[in-house]
Structure formats: C-alpha cells, structure tokens
Write a structure and sequence with these properties.
Blueprint lengths: L1 E9 L10 E10 L2 E10 L10 H5 L3 H4 L5 H12 L3 E4 L2 H15 L11 E4 H8 L7 H8 L11 H15 L14 H15 L10 H18 L3 H8 L7
Helix pairs in contact: 6-7
Length: 244
C-alpha cells in the first residue's frame, strides 16, 4: 500500500474567508515504511496572514514573495499524491484548503477525494484515546515520538512527525513480533508464561487510570488486528490475585 502523510500551513484558519496555503509537505510510505521520497513547496499566497498565523509558522509575506503560486505546482503535487491513501491529522481542515486551491485553478481538477482515499489520524487517535487531548504534540508525548526539534509549525516537519505518530498509533501484533505461528515453540512459551504467573512471579506495578486505559486500548487493537492477543489470553487464564 502506498500512503502519503500530508500537512499544510495556511495564512489563516478558514478557506471560506479566502485564506490560502503557504506550504505543503508530504512524506511517502510504502507498506508502512518511509521511502525517502518527499514533496515540499512554499507558496506565495498573494494575501496577508491572519493575526497569529504568522507567529505559528514563522513565515512572512517577504519570504514568500518569490515563491511559486499553487497553480504553478499543482500538476507536480497531484502527480505525487495520485492514487495514494492520504494520512492527515484533522483531515477536514487540510482537505478544505486543498479543494479550495484546486477550485481556484479550475473545476476540471475536481477534489482531492476524487484522486485519493483519506485516513484521518485525529479520528484514529480519538478512538484509541477517548476523552484525551489528541493534538500532534500530545500524541508525541503519549506515544514516545521525539518532537523536541519542533519549535515552529512547518508542513514537511509536521508530516515527518505525523508519519512516526501514525505508525506508532496503528502498530499491531503482527508488526511488533507478537504474532507467533502455531508451533511447539509457541506452546512451550505459553506453558512457561502460565507457570510464571501461577508461581506468583509477575511483579505488581501501580499505574494511573490514563495509563491503564491506554494499555487496554493497545491490547484490544492488537487483538483486532492479529485475531488474538497472548497477553489478554494469559490474563484471562491466570488465577485472581490475592488481596494485598
């Protein structure tokens, strides 16, 4: 499967008010592995930034003055994304701006969803971590993705970070080495694990409610993806712990 992790930076929050894209950043994944191929362009928006938007990106009208306009890079951009699954955080925002830019070039270009399927990583995060903050920064902290070099928002940088977050968010049992074949080795491992549990060898670890919820969600995601989860099976088979 070919996926494109995509992010945009804009002059403001609403394309309906005529705000424009000032940067597009894309990272290509094939079979969930980065290929090294990226697409990044700064764009001249032909308008001023909304208050606050310039501070978020660090971009200025002066810097963007000699950059190409969207119409000048649209063919190259569409060729890069055509036929891929797009991974976007809060997809409605970026798609709204991209569709608006396409409409300004001409109706013959259609909409992004005419060319690509879309996976919204924000919706995935809300399913896995309901009721919690699921911004890109919050997910980096929760999933152990290093974003210490992210001082300003940049489309390519954010797409690269999002790619790591997405892979961590959607990792499953088959991808992290837990899905062993039905062999004697697996049966032996299961017997040894059960014996350890029954002998009281498993240490007691105190976790808070948020960690417990994240752990349970991860195990359930593994079970759905791989068809079974050894940890859940062993917990179901283990005798109830004696009260402390």
């Amino acid at each position: 499967m070919r996926q494109i992790v995509l992010d945009t930076e804009t002059t403001g929050l609403s394309w309906e008010k005529g705000h424009r894209i000032v940067e597009i950043g894309c990272v290509e994944l094939v079979e969930r592995r980065p290929t090294g191929r990226t697409f990044q362009r700064y764009l001249n928006p032909d308008r001023d930034f909304e208050a606050g938007a310039q501070e978020v990106t660090g971009l200025t009208r002066e810097f963007l003055a000699d950059k190409p306009r969207f119409a000048e890079v649209v063919d190259e951009f569409l060729a890069f994304i055509d036929g891929a699954e797009l991974v976007i955080h809060n997809a409605a925002f970026d798609l709204g701006f991209l569709d608006y830019e396409l409409s300004l070039v001409g109706p013959h270009l259609g909409r992004i969803r005419d060319r690509c399927t879309v996976e919204d990583s924000l919706e995935l995060a809300r399913q896995r971590f309901p009721g919690q903050r699921n911004s890109l920064d919050a997910l980096c902290r929760r999933l152990g993705v290093d974003n210490s070099h992210r001082h300003l928002h940049g489309a390519l940088l954010d797409a690269q970070i999002l790619a790591e977050v997405y892979l961590a968010l959607t990792s499953g049992q088959g991808e992290i080495g837990f899905a062993l074949p039905e062999t004697a080795e697996r049966a032996t491992t299961s017997v040894q694990f059960t014996a350890t549990v029954q002998a009281g060898g498993r240490p007691r670890v105190a976790v808070d409610a948020e960690e417990a919820q994240a752990h349970a969600a991860r195990l359930e995601a593994i079970r759905r993806k791989a068809g079974r989860c050894l940890w859940l099976e062993q917990e179901a088979e283990a005798p109830a712990a004696e009260p402390a």
